[in-house]
Amino acid sequence: MKNSLDRYLYAIRALKERYLCVRSVDVAHYLGLSKASVSMAFRQIREQGLIEVEPDGNLRFTEAGRKRAEILTDRVSFFHRLLTGAGVEPSLALQDAISFGWEMSETSYEAFRKMGLRQTPENAVRNP
User: Fold this and answer.
1) Of 32, 29, 20, 31, residue with least CA distance to 59
2) Can you tell me the distance from the alpha carbon of 46 to that of 65, in angstroms, rounded to the nearest whole number?
3) Which of 74, 85, 88, 121 could be bridged to 93 by S-S, CB 3.0 to 4.6 A?
4) Domain ranges of the chain
């Protein structure tokens, strides 16, 4: 994926799972960034046709944005399960899974996914 804007899409998706209305200030707090930084990123995301901002400030995914956010969420969930299954502490596994989710190439992700789908408790990676 390797898109610097993906973390914003992921944050919107994560917040929308908890709240009906998500605004840019909510995303700024979630990511620990300034509202100005988030506003600049959202301008780019809007220009790419991934989100729309409603009159009340609520962020809404376009169809393309929803699909991209779902892909990111699936990738993060996959790596989180893989890492926690290998014994990594859940909050650290989530941090790493988020990094993997949008930094890894599609080719490498698919290779990991195929490997992960073949994992069973008998052949799973274990900590020494």
Assistant:
1) 20
2) 9
3) 88
4) 6-62, 67-118
Mean pLDDT to the nearest integer, 65-94? 91
Could you name the CATH architecture of 67-118? Orthogonal Bundle (1.10)
Q: Please state the pTM of the whole predicted model.
A: 0.76
Q: Are strands 59-61 and 51-53 parallel, antiparallel or unpaired?
A: antiparallel
Q: Which CATH class name applies to 6-62?
A: mainly alpha
**Which CA distances in Å does 74 have to 57, 70, 109?**
27, 6, 11
Residue 38 CA to residue 43 CA, distance in Å, equals 9
What pLDDT was estimated at residue 106?
Answer: 85
